[in-house]
Design a protein that fits this description.
4 helices; Tachylectin-2, Chain A; mainly beta
Length: about 375
């Protein structure tokens, strides 16, 4: 009887655990909207309200983000219309007045964006190796310059920690638990070499979780701000509110020589139950360009139910890498007859469909529609928790 009860409990637990998994209901084809989306270097996306989304560009030094209207079919989740509405906020936290950009700072290389509250956004800058909080400005003509007058958070990291163009590419925000997530795109310098087709390595990354609630609580305390002597946070200071986990990418799928090769995590997305979506991206571009491909894999991970891995620990055969479950994978390419190549870098949750399924919206970086060949592709994947 006891063995039967134990077996029943075990089976019930397995069924419960299985019910926690997300499954892909539908993977919709990618679409481009050249009439309403000007050529860009779109690299990150966050939902603002209704059908309006904030989109960052990694080549814009004037626009903090662009306002996009994205409409999807309420039954299938397929994209119906995408429109770039322009931008209202500059990178210095002021409203766009239509005049040429006169700012001193340049080379931001904004890669990811999340909405952290009703009034603020957090954006990663690969050019400055930082995570930075910005206000969401009202669009009224008399809106005040508030960009640096609020006690906003900023975390800078030494560029020497990262390989070139391989630092903060992703962001996710768990609004329920108030956690901010990010992960370096590739292996940190201290952890070894980044993956290439020739070395065939599997990148070993450190997923970072910031306790946003505690960070904001400290930032709002004027006495602590004075004690620190600066409003700017360092990576060392932020480590008090940071928890890390070990994440291992898949190995390169090709051994061919590339002119440009990128292998890493291009984006994260927080799910309502605390789990994360991880977008692994492998972009292979030969010198002649024909034969280029971009392979994307969408994984589900559950770090909150996983073992932590300190920043001070070294990777080894005993490292507790996060377990990941493949939800979807797709490959786009460039050939003489087909130009579907899409370097997906942005991802966020979209609307829920009539049947309760969840839409995930993805966007690609076309490098300003390179050579008139690439397009600004968008894609949706519909998932459901079962």
């Amino acid at each position: 009887m006891l063995r039967c009860n134990i077996l029943s409990i075990f089976l019930a637990f397995c069924l419960l655990a299985g019910a926690q998994d997300w499954k892909v209901v539908r993977e919709n084809p990618q679409k481009a909207f050249p009439k309403t989306v000007i050529a860009g270097n779109y690299s990150g996306i966050a939902h603002l309200h209704d059908d309006i989304y904030a989109v960052v560009s990694d080549k814009s030094d004037s626009a903090l983000y662009f306002n996009f209207r994205i409409q999807v079919n309420p039954k299938t989740g397929e994209l119906e219309q995408v429109e770039n509405l322009g931008f209202t906020e500059r990178t210095d936290g002021t409203l766009n007045d239509g005049k040429p950009w006169q700012g001193q700072e340049k080379g931001f290389d904004h890669e990811a964006i999340v909405k952290a509250s009703d009034s603020t956004l957090v954006i990663t800058s690969e050019g400055y190796c930082r995570l930075k909080e910005y206000p969401i400005l009202h669009t009224s003509a008399d809106a005040a310059k508030v960009g640096y007058q609020q006690n906003l958070w900023e975390s800078r990291w030494p560029s020497s920690d990262f390989y070139p163009n391989y630092n903060f590419e992703s962001l996710a925000f768990d609004s329920i638990r108030q956690y901010l997530w990010t992960i370096p795109e590739s292996t940190l310098r201290k952890d070894g070499q980044p993956a290439t087709p020739q070395n065939g390595l599997a990148n070993q990354l450190r997923l970072m979780r910031f306790d946003w609630g505690k960070i904001k609580e400290e930032n709002s305390n004027e006495e602590n701000s004075k004690k620190d002597g600066s409003k700017e946070n360092s990576s060392k200071k932020d480590s008090r509110y940071m928890t890390t986990y070990a994440y291992q990418l898949d190995k390169p799928s090709t051994h061919k020589k590339a002119d440009i090769y990128v292998m890493g995590v291009s984006e994260l997305c927080a799910l309502p139950d605390g789990q994360l979506l991880v977008l692994e991206r492998e972009a292979f571009i030969p010198k002649i360009k024909i034969g280029a491909f971009c392979k994307c894999k969408l994984y589900q991970i559950n770090p909150l139910n996983s073992e932590e891995f300190s920043m001070k620990e070294n990777f080894s055969s005993d490292t507790p890498f996060l377990k990941k479950r493949l939800l979807a994978e797709w490959k786009t390419g460039l050939s003489l007859s087909k130009r579907s190549f899409a370097n997906y870098e942005g991802m966020c949750l979209g609307p829920k469909l009539e049947d309760g399924s969840q839409v995930v919206i993805l966007l690609s970086d076309s490098q300003d529609q390179y050579a008139g060949v690439l397009k600004d592709w968008f894609k949706t994947i519909v998932i459901r928790k079962e």
